[in-house]
Design a protein that fits this description.
The chain has 354 residues and is α+β, with helices and mostly antiparallel strands. It is built from six helices and 21 strands.
């Protein structure tokens, strides 16, 4: 066949459309931009079309522009290839994310939404998830009684904010992409932990107040102030002593794995030690009944000093019911039987005071 006798049919027949494979990533040049589709010149591989929904949100297309596409169907009935730019971006994205996962790279992500389980993320065209359990101390939603609506409210505040993460798990086959903020800060946390020791006084921000205490963010490290360590006074409700967002200074009383146990009260002198000096063994004192239990009653002698009247010291009678002897908030006179300064205990007697 001479060069001049080659027909258009021969040219079409000589193209490599049949050689394209579904899922193959191929480059081309935009030849025509229309309302619902964009036509792509694939060179020796013929012509392809990308439907508008497969281009990508907000992407502007112009004639002559080089693009990378993924083959959805190598050869439609009309002879052209059906292509997708979204899928090509996603294919490239999986490869890049897999490399980032293997290298344990730290990434910056910006969640676009949240649900009660965590934050929704899109990276390299792929949807991912950052579970609540993988948030670091500074972002973890500490709420009372695991209130799901309050958790969601706090998570929604993180949408649109940049967060440093590592990829915790990835599976292209299962379409799974999980992020972790904890993993991203782990190395920094270990370095910071090595600089801390029991007895140090640190500054932190209260991130949540619950029935048994308060959580504190100490430079990215999570700390807990137990209710018994909030004040030298008897604390019934921690919310009356500390507020979320408040900056506090606290003493480290123990370091356990990735959490600090803190004390607010131990940053100040124990007022009990000063006030107890006003009482001596054998003294007759007056106090207010603050609690009544089956084994005895607690009596407040001064703002910081509380003492115990054991049931055996209420009367010479046997089988005495403390609730029949005392009423809450009433004042009575007692005799001081013993003062244990080291144990912070005072024993009282009602029957010896009469």
């Amino acid at each position: 066949m001479s060069k001049n006798s080659i027909t258009m049919d021969d040219l079409l027949a000589s193209t490599n459309i049949a050689g394209l494979k579904t899922g193959e990533v191929i480059e081309g040049v935009v030849s025509s931009v229309r309302k619902h589709e964009v036509w792509i010149d694939l060179g020796a591989n013929g012509v392809g079309v990308v439907m508008r929904k497969e281009i990508g949100h907000g992407q502007v297309m112009e004639e002559g522009q080089k693009v990378t596409t993924s083959v959805v169907d190598p050869e439609m009935d009309e002879g052209y290839a059906l292509l997708s730019m979204r899928r090509a971006a996603k294919d490239r994205g999986w490869d890049e994310l897999q490399q980032l996962f293997e290298s344990k790279e730290i990434l910056e992500i910006t969640p676009y939404d949240a649900n009660r389980g965590g934050l929704l993320v899109e990276l390299e065209g792929i949807r991912g998830f950052l579970p609540v359990s993988q948030l670091a101390a500074g972002h973890y939603p500490r709420v009372s009684g695991a209130d799901k609506d309050e958790i969601l409210q706090k998570l929604n505040q993180l949408a649109g904010k940049s967060i440093r993460v590592r990829i915790l798990d990835i599976s292209r086959k299962d379409n799974k992409l999980i992020f972790s903020e904890k993993e991203a800060v782990k190395d920094d946390m270990q370095a910071r932990f090595s600089e801390l020791k029991v007895g140090d006084v640190v500054e932190g921000v209260i991130t949540g107040v619950i029935d048994f205490g308060a959580f504190v963010n100490v430079d990215g490290i999570e700390g807990l102030i137990h209710i018994s360590e909030i004040s030298w006074e008897r604390v019934e409700d921690p919310r009356k002593y500390v507020k979320t967002g408040e900056t506090v200074k606290a003493k480290i009383i123990s370091i356990d794995k990735d959490r600090l146990s803190l004390s607010l009260k131990q940053t100040t002198e124990d007022p009990w030690l000063g006030e107890v000096k006003a009482f001596k063994k054998g003294d007759t004192v007056e106090g207010k009944v603050t609690r009544i239990t089956p084994f005895g009653a607690f009596v407040q002698l001064s703002p910081a000093v509380e003492a115990l009247v054991h049931v055996s010291e209420m009367s010479d009678e046997e089988g005495i019911d403390p609730e029949k002897i005392f009423q809450l908030n009433e004042n009575k006179k007692f005799k001081v039987l013993d003062i244990d300064t080291e144990g912070r205990k005072i024993a009282l007697s009602l029957k010896d005071a009469k």
